[in-house]
Design brief:
6-stranded parallel β-sheet, 11 helices, Quinone Oxidoreductase, Chain A, domain 1, Rossmann fold, alpha/beta
Length: 332
């Protein structure tokens, strides 16, 4: 029999760092698969800021919370080692929501076969949730126009870095907000952003005036924090704000107050929040949009790889500290 190691959510976070007290590590024999099911050995799984929402008790969010006692939710990539499904054969490489565990056993529905000759790291970094989120948020929600100015927070992160590169490919002036000089250099020198702001050390107002003298047309929000107010004050008439994430507020018991709605009226600003589960049915079309940019060398990535299943627990805190460099993944 095959033994599976899995990590289960046992308590809800109440603010502050994530630690072992919220989880339980278990080892159990993998059950036999039934008709329509597969057994997948995961090779790598993704860590995403959305996990903080999935661990919360909020039942009114876009996706139900992880039930206490259940395997922690995550997407991953691995190899089918047993199949009773017409959809997959042994040896197929698949991606899907398989959780914090070495082996996934369950329905084949929701898993997708990966045939592209790219690494597991590249799949999770670009073609999985980060790239799909960036493409949907920028192209479909933000509706960018050549010549406009876009600013994206969390610009060195998995979603923000792709948003900025796609925007550059669409002919926009792109400013990225990051948390270190190293990240600022990476997005400008390697990814081609027009400018970068270090929110920890720069004079935010002065830097925004320097990099966006004509104002901001499109704001892709991943983080929240004080710079949000400075950006909002500089939005142009008929600007768009795409609200994708607010990592700065996730560890807080009470979120920080947002900008005044007065400018929403005066400048006719459109603000839209979005999440990918609403658009899973559009994934083929999103990939058709994203893939040519990637294959044409217009979208690059870097990954921050953690080793071993247990590293996922404290690894989540890298989102709070900003010490992760690129897409955060866990390799088994």
């Amino acid at each position: 029999m095959t033994t599976n190691k899995s990590i289960h959510l046992m308590k809800r976070p109440t603010g502050g760092p994530i630690d072992d007290s919220l989880f339980e590590i278990r080892e159990n024999e993998v059950r036999d698969i039934n008709d329509g099911e597969v057994l997948v050995k995961q090779n790598m799984m993704s860590l995403d800021p959305a996990m903080f929402g999935w661990m919360s008790p909020d039942t009114e969010s876009y996706i139900p919370p992880v039930e206490l006692g259940d395997v922690m939710r995550s997407s991953g990539i691995g190899e089918v080692v047993a199949s009773k499904s017409d959809k997959f054969q042994v040896g197929d490489r698949v991606m899907g929501m398989m959780g914090w565990q070495h082996y996934y056993v369950g329905s084949a529905e929701g898993l997708n076969k990966i045939e592209a000759p790219v690494s597991d790291e590249a799949v999770l970094s670009v073609f999985a949730l980060p790239g799909l989120t960036a493409t949907q948020g920028l192209i479909k929600v933000g509706q960018p126009k050549s010549g406009e100015t876009l600013i994206v927070t969390g610009a060195a992160g998995s979603v923000g870095s792709i948003v900025g590169q796609l925007a550059k490919a669409e002919g926009l002036n792109v400013i990225g907000v990051v948390g270190s000089d190293e990240k600022a250099e990476w997005i400008t020198k390697e990814l081609g952003f027009d400018g970068a702001i270090n929110y920890k050390t720069d004079d935010l107002a002065a830097k925004l005036d320097e990099l966006a003298p004509k104002g901001i047309d499109l704001f892709f929000e991943n983080t929240g924090g004080p710079i949000q107010h400075h950006i909002f004050e500089r939005m142009n008439a008929h600007g768009r704000v795409v609200v994708c994430g607010l990592i700065a507020d996730y560890p807080k018991a009470e979120p920080a107050p947002g900008p005044s709605w007065l400018n929403v009226i005066k400048k006719r600003i459109r603000i839209e929040g979005f999440t990918m589960p609403d658009h899973f049915g559009e994934i083929p079309q999103l990939l058709q949009t994203l893939t040519p940019y990637v294959m044409g060398g217009k979208v690059k990535y870097r990954a921050h790889t953690l080793e071993g299943l247990e590293s996922a627990i404290t690894g989540l805190n890298l989102f709070f500290t900003g010490d992760n460099k690129g897409k955060l993944v866990v390799k088994f």
